[in-house]
């Protein structure tokens, strides 16, 4: 049913942007219909031989040379473009092209030329006088930012079907001449188009942009038309296949004496050394040619010439002219405040009490009349007046006190380095530029406290404004704290080892950066040195040291055993940044903080100790057997509770380490089991053994992660074993969907591991980025195929309308291209995936407004008949 076709699938430079040459000599492209994107991103190509390409069947050339930013020239003389419909963005970002000959292009079937030459910033001229545009519908931004163009020939442009020309000439700063025929029209939805055409533009009769622009430099779109008598414009009239009479050479005319009669001088015109003939090549009309002042001959091209040319001449009253050079010029306003707009105060000039007429007796020119400073006005006599008088006015800088100044980061944490956050300065909706419009200086921006930024105006702005930001003390939670001595013999005196605190590679200064206090530092047991931040530091850290019973000595008898503090934790791994998810697919229940267990101190397989009784002496508590002896350096099961005794037989409390394993003994000496909150952290002591758990632990069907210090992790993201996990504030490992930081993540059921790539959940496929965040951005390119993701993140299948265009997503979700049979009908999907409608495909098949291939029917307005197999019956 289908003809064999050759399709170039993908981009030659995809993933190879550093490719410097391409050999196309062996490529057979006679059947290729789509060359869109063919050289997309070939930014390193400096030359390209296209002489072997057969383009006779090509229909799409959009984005064909996009980003070929190193090409300086292209020879397209062999291109057959008679079937091409799409040329949009064809040369987009070809920023080094200096010339382009498109005279061989047949554009009669092209429908889209939008952004065709966007950012071709090195082109100086462009002759498109061979273009046929009668079917073109879109020309928006066609020459946007062609900043080196000086002339542009659009004389054959038929704009009858064009729906938008928005920003067609924006950024063409040097464009002085645009040739356009009588079929040219500029189409825009609004009345005013700002910056739509460059400042150098001059119409065929001399109309300049300053003649028609508003105070802010914008022009009404109606001025973008040919400049003809009675209807001024900014373009130059030139009909197809003619010479613009505007460009012919003309001898200047002398001044003529005023007689009261019309002055009708003849003119002398020549082009390429050939004199033009009145009546054959042109005809004349006149303007303002009776009264004294400036008059003009209007030359209208005929025959081989078209358009108009103005040749000025003067009509003067005989006698001496009056010199205006010493005449006072009165301005309607002598002081303005800068607002970015051109300033043109009104001008009044009088001679001997008589008010002169602008345009008849003098012309006015302004300079330096936009930016802050002294602006100038020049009044130059004409007609019966001569000489130039000048005046000036002032444009004052605008005060920054009326600007909105915002600090981009209002709070910083102390790290010893200067903080220099940037600011935004908004003046009436215009964001100002640092260095050009203002400078920044900083004060008090290193130490903790309130820092200050001074914004000082410059150039067009004056005055200063200030904004503040804070520098907050840094927490000591990450500090390394050590003591000069970790063990003492008890002697009844307080022990105060010196403390060293290091943070970020720096040793902190006592009294300035922190203070030290001591806890439980007299009696035998575990003592602590507590470091509390001050100045640039906050929070506290503690380090423990031991006070031991001296061998053979008797110390002072203390009271009941104190509860020793938990030993210092190993460094806590830092919480990773949350990976940077869709409408909520579901929610989960927060399990809450684990409850304190009711059971504690189980025997754990330790046999009951012999009968005895508790004893207390100056060194502490011990257990005496009734038949003599006592437990020492062992676990003991006494009355159903487990205790630990040291080598001397005294009962231990607090954290202890036995055979490399940590245990916790409460203040009564009983070994704790299950969950325990100690020092503000939760620990899990395994039931039966009391051993402190680390790593993953399953408790009551829920998984928790215990750090190397034993403290339960509840900090959010955890990276472990090459995978990411999410821990709730209760410490419970999350499973299923979670909304975190405004993004959705999927934690695999059973393992809790964060999913990436494709994941099927509840029968629906989702795509998780490498960060784990669910993708819901619309089109996704993955594994060489395009997919559509709904706002919920769900992968779409079947028909999908996107931006008014229909696409077909296979059951795998992959976007279909080429012919596809759906529900008994055949459809044609372009290389972009867009469903073709109301057009011929492969030259023999017709697809109608529904996209379905027609069979056994008259089509295309009833002009052609297609058979049961869909083929046009010629």
From TrEMBL:
Alphabetized, the UniProt keywords read:
Repeat
User: Which residue numbers delimit the MBG domain?
Assistant: 479-549
Q: Give the domain of life.
A: Bacteria
In the record for this protein, the Cell wall-binding repeats are positioned at 652-671, 693-712, 755-774, 796-815, 816-835
Task: Give the species this sequence originates from.
Answer: Muribaculaceae bacterium Z82
For this protein's source organism, the top of the classification is:
Bacteria, Pseudomonadati, Bacteroidota, Bacteroidia, Bacteroidales
Residues spanning the membrane: none
Which SUPFAM superfamilies does the entry mention?
Cell wall binding repeat (SSF69360), RNI-like (SSF52047)
Q: Where is this region: Disordered?
A: 546-612
Q: Please identify the protein, giving its name as recorded.
A: BspA family leucine-rich repeat surface protein
Q: Which residue windows does the record flag with biased composition (Low complexity)?
A: 557-585
